[in-house]
Every structure is written in structure tokens, then in C-alpha cells.
């Protein structure tokens, strides 16, 4: 869930009422959001940047509020206040209008070259808008929140906002070679080519995350005005020439995208929230967008649509017994204008801010929120079932208990690890491992889903190597392996892994642990590996040569046991020998 930070005093001023922390927390709960934390600017800076940066910071109270991921209309102060006031019955939801300009349309012309990288664009104008410092900051914050959530870190949609009075339409959107694009980017003092910007922002804590979206492309998207002034290099940075300020009166908004539907949602959300500050409130000026085939479309659409829903079905699905008029009132409080018709059904008007309403079920959910989940009468289900523990989980719990009784300590390690952990450190090529890769990892420590439990245990030992010897750890958890036969392309396997770390390898202890596990599983030793289990010598790069064996069960290898190779031990910053066992326990069910 996205979290927004809002100044408490500004929030209460906009709501026209002061609440205690408990009262506001209760209001948030009723509205379907959550007051997550009460803090201050100074405390936030102190926590994130240290004492020195916190000197002189504001002591204003900040409310951190968790917003449902699909409620894009609540990601700023303006949308939240509007939603809460409508919910409280203090105002009606405004009618949003997209109007034609008094003179000529502002026009954005899309060139065919953009099809190679970001083929779609939409645009709109906020005319005669009034900014102050707080509304300006909220305007920027909403763009950041949309970029991080709906826009998928700008990979789907990138927003550009410009002072319309500093540029001259019509505007062109095209894709050019990086060396041919040259302009002064936002808050810089000199011009750079687009290729130079890739190096300039490579270490920027904010913008470096977006560079890979276009960096390796032979052409970069760019928006220019009729005089050749660069407005933006989406999705990286806007031009300094057209930057908006507190004195900006007319804002030109462009959204470039790989997904036209998402671009429409982003544009509708942005203009709906801040058109309230226009001289003609809740009115947005349309722009013309010309596609490469010459087809002209106008944006924003700000489309209202209607849904007919059944009162009986709502009552049955939610678990209430209310009249059509009461349900219509509940929906109106959720910014969904509703009226009953002569047939007793409810006609719901869905505004352009509620793109989260996709199906009638979404309307039922809003009825439940407005009615209050705590007010719904609790009933027993009409059918009863008897639950039972999953056999795999039951076996896992039993093994954990027995391994602990054998003197080993349980560890719970991360499900994600680095590529190096499962390949180089274990002396295996990455191409030989059926690992599931994370497409956009947050850190280098979490690049792949673990395909073995061994690295996690070795890292745990490394973090505790100052503890008294010997260190004996185990884990029984899932690993993830690629599997083209599964609909998701991967499968989970429940593995058991144990590691012994001491001045001597202690292979006999690990071997004894394996025999104890097999005894508990009632699997006898069998020289053929068909009726029971057996050990088969093998060469495994992770283990010391000649001191490794495969565990064979049912004619197939289910695991391995042996003394770890010295290079594996040292790669995890350990200095003493280790023995380990790892096997898949699922075949023993």
C-alpha cells in the first residue's frame, strides 16, 4: 500500500475541523484507509539522514496515511480531503469538465519514430491556476506517487509538467539519437546532450533508477515546442526552460507512455485533483494529440460512465438488509453518485477519478466500507468444513522438532539472495542453476530467489562466528526453481539443510544426522537406492573432492552430503572447515 505524508494542520484546515489523533484514526478506518504513523519533519530527517541534517527542521506534525493501492485519487491532500468531506456529507462530489479552449487547441504531434521506444502520449492544460508553496509541493508529490505506483517507476508512464507561457505550440514528440538531443535539464546551469545526461545522473539517488528504461536504446524520446525548445526527455528529466514555479499560471501537462490506458488514468487523476485551483474550478482545457497516421484525438477524456446494480444482490453479497435509497446514499458518500430507478435498481455514476471501479463487485465493496464492516451482522457460514494440516507442513514441523533435539539450532534466512551467493561463492556457473531472477531488484543482495538453503546458513554462521564453537545450524524451508511445466514458470521445493562448523569438519556428525532423519522417515538403507536410500560418490564443485556423495532415493538423487570446499568456506568469510547436508524432503511424503 502506498503511504502519503500530510501536514496535520493543513489537513485539518482543509477539512474545516480539528480532530484528536484517536478521532482521526477512527475516521480513517471508517473510510477504508489507515493512519499508519504520527511523526514530524524533524523526526523523519533525523531517522533517514542523521542529526546534522535535522538541525532547524520543522516540528510540524506529519500524518503518514496508508492508501489502498488502487485509489489513485487519494494520493494527495486535495483528493484525500475531497473524499473525506464527501464521505462525511459536508459537500457533494464536483462535476469535472473537459472544455475546448477559447482560441486554438494546444497540439501535440507524435512522430512515427516514437514507436521504437514510447509510442503513446496524451496532454492537457490547466488554465489560470493559482499555486502557493503548499499546493505546489502537493502537485509535485502527487506526480512522484503516481510515478512510483501506477506508472511502475516511469516504465509505463512518465509525467511532464511545463509552464505553458514559456513555450510555443504546437509541440512535437519524436525519438532522436542521444547525441542530437541537447538542452539544459531541470535545475542545471549548462546544456548537455542526452548521452551525457546518462553519465551525469548515473550516481543521482533519485534519477539513476530510471536511466535503464531508455539507456540502451538507439533513440531517445524527446518533446519540443515549435521553436525547437526541449520540454522534456521522458522518462528521465524535464527541461529547465519550461519548469513550473509558484508564479506559473498556465500548466501544460504531457504524459508519454508504453500503455495508453495507463496514460489516460494518470492524466485524469492529475488534472482532476488540481483543477480545483483553476480560476474556473474543476475545468480542464483539452489538447489535441495527433498520432503518426494523422488521426486527431482530444485529451483529457474525463469520462463518466454508469453501472446498474441490483439491490438484492448487494444485500446478499455484503450481508446487509438495506433499502435502495439507503444504499444509494452510502454510495454517494463514497464519491459514486447513485440514484434509484422505477424498477428499484440503483444507477451508479462513476466519475473519472474512480478508475479502480472495474466491476460491480468494486461497487459492492464501497457499500460495505460506507456501511461499516463492524456494523455488518456476524453470521455462521451455511456450510462447515473440517480443516487439516498440509502433509508437507506437518512433516516439516516434525523434522524441525527432531533436528533441534539433535542439537542443531534453527535459522530462518531470506528467500532472496544475490546471484553470487548461489553461483560464484558455491563454485558453480550461474547458467547451470535453474534460478528465478528478480527483474528489478531493490539491492544487489536480493537479485534471485534462492535455489539452495546453503548460502543463507553459511552467511548466518559468518554473522555469528564469534559465538562458541561448534556452530550447528539447520533450516527446513522452500527453495524456488525454474520449471517450464508450471503455469508460472517456477515451482517451490521444500528442502532440509544442516551445516556443522568447527575446527574439524565433523562429517561424521552430519552423516549421523542424515541417518537419523532417514530413521525418522522410516526409510531403510538400501545398496540399490530403490527400496530405501543410498549414498553415491559424486563430483560436486561445492564440496571437497572425494568427500561428497549424492543421496539416492527411489532411483533419483534427492540431495547431497559432504565436506565443503575450502574456497566455498572462505568466500563466505569463514576460516574453519564445514560439513553440510541438503536434501529435498518432498519425495518422502
From TrEMBL:
It catalyses: tRNA(Phe) + L-phenylalanine + ATP = L-phenylalanyl-tRNA(Phe) + AMP + diphosphate + H(+). Pfam families: B3_4, B5, PhetRS_B1, tRNA_synthFbeta. Its EC number is 6.1.1.20. Its main location: cytoplasm. Its cofactor is Mg(2+). Tetramer of two alpha and two beta subunits. This is Phenylalanine--tRNA ligase beta subunit. The gene is EOG090X03QT.
Amino acid at each position: 500500500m502506498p503511504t502519503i505524508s500530510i501536514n496535520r494542520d493543513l489537513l485539518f484546515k482543509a477539512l474545516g475541523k480539528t480532530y484528536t489523533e484517536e478521532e482521526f484514526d477512527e475516521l480513517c478506518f471508517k473510510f477504508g484507509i489507515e493512519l499508519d504513523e504520527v511523526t514530524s519533519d524533524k523526526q523523519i530527517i533525523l531517522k533517514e539522514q542523521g542529526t546534522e541534517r535535522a538541525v532547524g527542521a520543522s516540528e510540524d506534525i506529519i500524518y503518514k496515511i496508508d492508501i489502498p493501492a488502487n485509489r489513485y485519487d487519494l494520493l494527495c491532500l486535495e483528493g484525500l480531503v475531497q473524499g473525506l468531506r464527501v464521505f462525511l456529507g459536508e459537500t457533494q462530489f464536483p462535476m469535472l469538465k473537459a472544455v475546448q479552449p477559447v482560441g486554438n487547441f494546444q497540439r501535440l504531434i507524435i512522430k512515427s519514430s516514437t514507436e521504437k521506444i514510447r509510442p503513446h502520449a496524451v496532454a492537457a492544460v490547466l488554465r489560470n491556476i493559482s499555486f502557493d508553496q503548499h499546493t505546489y509541493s502537493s502537485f509535485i508529490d502527487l506526480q512522484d506517487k503516481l510515478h512510483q505506483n501506477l506508472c511502475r517507476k516511469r516504465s509505463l508512464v512518465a509525467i511532464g509538467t511545463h509552464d505553458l507561457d514559456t513555450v510555443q505550440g504546437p509541440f512535437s514528440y519524436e525519438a532522436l539519437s542521444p547525441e542530437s538531443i541537447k538542452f539544459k535539464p531541470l535545475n542545471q546551469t549548462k546544456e548537455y546532450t542526452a548521452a551525457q545526461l546518462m553519465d551525469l545522473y548515473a550516481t543521482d539517488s533519485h534519477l539513476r533508477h530510471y536511466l535503464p528504461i531508455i539507456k540502451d536504446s538507439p533513440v531517445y524520446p524527446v518533446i519540443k515546442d515549435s521553436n525547437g525548445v526541449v520540454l522534456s526527455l521522458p522518462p528521465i528529466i524535464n527541461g529547465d526552460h519550461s519548469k513550473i514555479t509558484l508564479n506559473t499560471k498556465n500548466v501544460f501537462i504531457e504524459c508519454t507512455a508504453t500503455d495508453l490506458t495507463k496514460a489516460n488514468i494518470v492524466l485524469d487523476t492529475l488534472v482532476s485533483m488540481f483543477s480545483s485551483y483553476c480560476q474556473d474550478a474543476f475545468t480542464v482545457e483539452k489538447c489535441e494529440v495527433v498520432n503518426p497516421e494523422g488521426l486527431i484525438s482530444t485529451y483529457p477524456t474525463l469520462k463518466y460512465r454508469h453501472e446498474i446494480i441490483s439491490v438484492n444482490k448487494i444485500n446478499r453479497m455484503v450481508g446487509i438488509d438495506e433499502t435502495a435509497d439507503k444504499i444509494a446514499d452510502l454510495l454517494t458518500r463514497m464519491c459514486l453518485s447513485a440514484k434509484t430507478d422505477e424498477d428499484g435498481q440503483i444507477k451508479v455514476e462513476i466519475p473519472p477519478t474512480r478508475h479502480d471501479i472495474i466491476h460491480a463487485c468494486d461497487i459492492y465493496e464501497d457499500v460495505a466500507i460506507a456501511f461499516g464492516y463492524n456494523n455488518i451482522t456476524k453470521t455462521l457460514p451455511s456450510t462447515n468444513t473440517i480443516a487439516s494440516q498440509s502433509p508437507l507442513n506437518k512433516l516439516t514441523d516434525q523434522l524441525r522438532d527432531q533436528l533441534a533435539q539433535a542439537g542443531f539450532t534453527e535459522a530462518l534466512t531470506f528467500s532472496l539472495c544475490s546471484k553470487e551467493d548461489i553461483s560464484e561463492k558455491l563454485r558453480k556457473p550461474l547458467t547451470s542453476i535453474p534460478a528465478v531472477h528478480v527483474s528489478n531488484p531493490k539491492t544487489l543482495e536480493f537479485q534471485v530467489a534462492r535455489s539452495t538453503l546453503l548460502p543463507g546458513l553459511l552467511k548466518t554462521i559468518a554473522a555469528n562466528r564469534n559465538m562458541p564453537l561448534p556452530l550447528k545450524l539447520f533450516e527446513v524451508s522452500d527453495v524456488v526453481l525454474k520449471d517450464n511445466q508450471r503455469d508460472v514458470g517456477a515451482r517451490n521445493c521444500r528442502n532440509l539443510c544442516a551445516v556443522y562448523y568447527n575446527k574439524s569438519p565433523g562429517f561424521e556428525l552430519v552423516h549421523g544426522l542424515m541417518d537419523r532423519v532417514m530413521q525418522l522417515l522410516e526409510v531403510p538403507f538400501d545398496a540399490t537406492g530403490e527400496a530405501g536410500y543410498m549414498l553415491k560418490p559424486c563430483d560436486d564443485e561445492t564440496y571437497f573432492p572425494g568427500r561428497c556423495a549424492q543421496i539416492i532415493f527411489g532411483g533419483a538423487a534427492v540431495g547431497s552430503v559432504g565436506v565443503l570446499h575450502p574456497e566455498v568456506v572462505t568466500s563466505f568469510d569463514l576460516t574453519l572447515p564445514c560439513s553440510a547436508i541438503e536434501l529435498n524432503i518432498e519425495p518422502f511424503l
